[in-house]
Amino acid sequence: MDYRPLGKSGLKVPVLSFGAGTFGGSGPLFGNWGTSDATEARRLVDICLDAGVNLFDTADVYSSGASEEVLGEAIKGRRDAVLVSTKTGLPMGDGPNDAGTSRFRLIRAVEDALRRLQTDYIDLLQLHAFDAGTPVEEVLSTLDTLVRSGKVRYVGVSNFSGWQVMKSQAVADRYGWPRYVAHQVYYSLVGRDYEWELMPLGADQGLGAMVWSPLGWGRLTGKIRRGAPLPEGSRLHETASFGPPVEDEHLYRVVDALDAVADETGRTVPQIALNWLLQRPTVSSVIVGARNEAQLRQNLGAVGWNLTPEQVARLDAASAVTAPYPYFPYHRQEGFARLNPPAV
């Protein structure tokens, strides 16, 4: 397993990390992701650690805390061997203070997460969404308190817009509070919006991307084909409305290109889609999930080799879409690349 710095920090993370949203799954969304109990979760953690995957990502909102609880059981007795990432900020109840990232909510959310995870510190705490109702100064001063207390080691965000990240980093710099070093983002061959603004921002501000749903919300599993119905066992039957939309023709064009590269390499479609992401700028870790051991072992096969530049270029071309305003007007003009070099 290869390891990379998490953004502009000294923390090294594996290029593949494990998403624990499948642990303790319940409800119409998370129940379709997976329902691993503590025994099965412990086996999946064993496989990850044997492969060098030591970063496990969860959130308080995943199955109303059950994911954190199952993960806590699965890593019991080996806390020092793993890195734990969790998220908070989305609603955990109907009360007026059960959502957001106020000082009240953040402190309570961290205490609850520590209890469920059976640990006394969180390696990476990420804000699951921007809270427009709480001053950025209140959020960041609270995170500073949590870091100084030793309950949180590093801080990051998830699903923020560019201006929300930039405002937060500027406030952190002004007061000497911890800067965000990670941004958990949606990024895949059928969802490349991350590249327009958030990737250059990440390169400039030192945020490493932790990629969620790298297989396009289950569309790049190799089971979806042009002219064929959605497989009977696909979770998309129940969960498609929860995730990022993809136009059918765009999806089929990408799948056709993936199939061609799969024939050349002898690798599976998911492995190729994951390997493509591992070669993108600013990506620190790609989060993979698995409902069972077979899925996990297949995903782990995405490392230890690389697509050729020519194969990457073909996948780039098949998945390309016109950039939205204000990013598209000058892309075709000579000199634009000199003014706006790619993120590195």
Automatic annotation (TrEMBL):
Kindly list the GO molecular function terms attached to this UniProt entry: oxidoreductase activity
Outline the extent of the NADP-dependent oxidoreductase domain: 18-318
Q: PROSITE patterns attached here?
A: ALDOKETO_REDUCTASE_2
List, alphabetically, the GO terms of the cellular component aspect. cytosol
Assigned keywords, A-Z: Oxidoreductase
Q: Which InterPro entries match?
A: AKR, AKR_Detox_Biosynth, Aldo/ket_reductase_CS, NAD(P)_OxRdtase_dom_sf, NADP_OxRdtase_dom
Entry protein name: Aldo/keto reductase
Species source reads: Ectorhizobium quercum
